[in-house]
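User: I'll paste a sequence; please echo it back and then give the predicted structure.

Assistant: Echoing your sequence first, then the prediction.
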Amino acid sequence: MRRWQLYQQPTTGEEDGTVERDGRAGVSLLCEVRQGSRPWKAARLEDLSPGGFRIAWLPDARPDLPLRIRIPGMQMLSAQVRWKRESAIGCEFAKPLHVAVFDHIVRSSRGY
C-alpha cells in the first residue's frame, strides 16, 4: 500500500459542511514545478489530498527525478511522480501535508 493511500479518509469541508470524497479536494491553483535543475514551469494544481496531488500535463515529467512544487503562500514542497496520463500527472508528497495545511490550501483555492 502506498503511503498516500493512508490519507484518503473523508475530511470535512469548509463552512458548508461538505465532505471531500476520498480525502481529496478539487482545487484550481496556478503553481510552479521543477525537476532537477530544470527551470521552474507554471502548472495548474487540479486535485489535492494530504498525501499527493494532480497537476495538468507536464510533458517532460520523469518518475525517476524528485519534483518540487511551489504553491502560492506555501514553502516549497518535494514530491515524486507516481503516474502520467494523457492530460495530467499524479504525485505523492515526500512528507504528507498536515491537515491544517491541506485545509488552508483548499480554502485559499476557493476564495475563503
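The chain has one helix and eight strands. The chain has a mean pLDDT of 82.
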